[in-house]
Amino acid sequence: MPDLLEVSGLTKRFGGLVAVRDMHFTIAPGEILGLIGPNGSGKSTVMKLIMGIERPNAGSVRIDGVEVAGLASHQIARMGVGIVFQHSRPLHRQTVLENIKLALLPDSLLRLFTASHIEDRARAIAARVHLDHVIDRLPGTLPFADLRRLELARAVARNPKVVLVDEPFAGLTSTEVADFSNLIASFRAEGHAVLLVDHNVRGVAALVDQVLAMYLGERIAEGSAEQVMRDEKVRQVYLGGAIQAASRPAPPSGGRTTLLDVENLSVFYGKAQALDGVSLSVGVGECVSVVGLNGAGKTTLFNTISGLVPASGAVKFDGKDLRGRTPAQIARAGIVQCPESRELFGDMSVRENLDLGGQHLSRANSTRQLEWLLDLFPILKSRHGQAARTLSGGEQQMLAIARALMMQPRLLILDEPTLGLAPVILEQLSKALETLRQTTDITVLLGEQNVTFALPHADRVYVLEHARFIWEGTPERFAIEAGAQFL
Amino acid sequence: MSGNTKTFGLALIVVVALACLPFGVSGYVLGLLTLAYYFGVFAMSWDLLFGFAGEVNFGPSFLIGVGAYTAGLLNHYPHWPIWACVVTGAVASVIAGLMLAVPALRLRGPYFGLVTLVAVLLLQNLIVLYAGITGGEIGLDLPDVLSIDEANNYWIALCFMSVSGACLFGLSRSAVGLILQASGQDAVQAAALGFNVTKHKLAAFCVSALFSGLAGAMLIFYEGTASPGTVVDIAVGVQVIIAAVLGGRRTILGAALGAIFLIVAGEILRPLGQLSTFVVSAVALLVILFFPGGFLGLLSRSGRG
């Protein structure tokens, strides 16, 4: 049988960054391909290129033999591609039934009335994804899993040849995951070609026929789920060769004074639970890593500590409850977060970005701090007049960390500093962090999905999965007890 | 569907009640309401764009003004009959709207709104620059008027508003309206469902321009004169926007309600002099700040509660 989806030579550049380079794969009717890769690897871009949400710079995408690369999104949808977005955004004033009907309407300006067969078809689709009991309710009153079902229903409403699913199981409980797996498997049984995009093999292993692993825009492995999990390159990307730990001697006089104490934090985004009763403590001068895959809740945890996201539970810093403080007050109190997205002022120079960080310091103090930082990150010295926007990804990350350090934090929170960085940059960043850790008594809370990077810099490690801590311990024990979680 | 039928029934009762007004109230009140009904159509047309297509048109008076001045000039110079002037005015408004929207809809974010705002300024400048032809700031006299009888004028306006309202409301609740709403809320997702988002938004813009142009042209034949202060000025557009938001976004009918409220309240408070505008604006501000759903939003909330 001819392949329903054929991708070859697909390339996408954003400015100087190559997000996807020369991708090629095929999906036959009744086949499920899992496209996996860590955060920033380009897998979502591949999906957007197929759907026409982004236009490829080069390459070909064929649906059932017809070239669609470069067409507009709605044209590609008409050729038989359906997509399940990770976030469902239904029409909130319309019922579930009307939302499904929408997906079945013809793209015509003249069809004012809905044909009766559309209504019947919409009911049939609702029954198929088990939404029939809530068909007349508004989306706002539905639980999270039902919203995902609605999203799924709309994507397959027009019986597309190719179904793209972005993170099929994010935010679902294990029974719901089983339910969704059955639904997706039923698409395969009907001869659809299915592309599942996810972070790790483990999540989709039971469902997929083939797996393709991506890293930094390129494919690094392909084969069955077992083959990919055993693949040396994949293991390196996810785990790094051998996990190494460089622990410091324990501080004298047994135990540290607690600097940050987080108790029983829970956070909801609408109906999705992002944190579920999370507790953590960080001692003065301690470096603690929180590792977990994308979507596990790391950023939410940090944003909660920084006062950016409301939560139930308690955050105590230096013995004082932070409840009711604004993010600015918390930052001044000494908790400085260096966010995943870096948030540099792109049109300002490197020096101006750093000066902004040191705004509240005395002039002498600021100069001293700046000199120290430029020693720590020598590359910033040679770039000091350049606009932050024009720096490479690695340089931007160093600048973001340096700017955070200009504020002389008592607790530095680093959220995914390695996101989208090439290995050689990782090494430089790693060295800088190690110097920081060995020469100062700074307290660091580091969030990472890159275990290789997180472990050497940690005194203690927490593993976050599906909004909960599932493991806590020293880096030495991590490889033995928790390493397998990360493939 | 039953909700729509109920709304239609309720609206019908209100229209019948309003149609009886000329037998009981003074010509002064009728004149006020006549003006309010034309404003109601402006506001409803605007809500179709903002509430459903999700595009903020900061220059509704561009579409209104093109319709009004096209009709006015055709009546003033070649003495075309009123109906021909009104129809041509509406068509001109759609064409001008398309010329504006085709390039502007390519822009993202606030730029669409800014383009529409600049268009109003351009139109106003043109009218003033060619004052010899257009009458400039003072206005353009029209040889013809719709009617000299206040009651007739009132019924024409009420009838026009009712028919326009029924068309726009019906459209917003139709299959096409559903697609339009999806395009306005999430263009990427609507496109992924196979809908040509630009096409639907353009169509909405044309419909909005058609009714705005019609209403603008009718209004000047009611007043007997066309002037920038009544159909082009930015302030007119701002009033239309306030009326629509005040009445309730995404309700169409609420926009007419908001327009009637604005005009009637402005008149009742006239003894306050300059203060009246201030008070009406303050009320509008409070409603928008604390009840962003507008009048109809409030009604439906209390109805459900």
- What gross morphology of chain B would you assign? globular
CATH architecture of the largest domain in chain A: 3-Layer(aba) Sandwich
Instruction: Give the low-pLDDT segments of chain A.
Output: none
Q: What assembly state would you assign to the polypeptide chains in this entry? A: heterodimer
Nearest-integer average pLDDT of chain A:
86
Biggest sheet character of chain A: 6 strands, mixed
- Summed up, the helix count of chain B is 15
Distance between the termini of chain B: 21 Å
Low-pLDDT sequence parts of chain B: none
SSE arrangement of chain B, N to C: HHHHHHEHHHHEHHHHH
How many alpha or pi helices of chain A? 18
Neighbour order of strands in the largest sheet of chain B = 1-2
Which structural class matches the secondary elements of chain A?
alpha/beta
**Name of the CATH superfamily of the largest domain in chain A:** P-loop containing nucleotide triphosphate hydrolases
From the alpha carbons, calculate the radius of gyration of chain B and give it in angstroms.
Answer: 19 Å
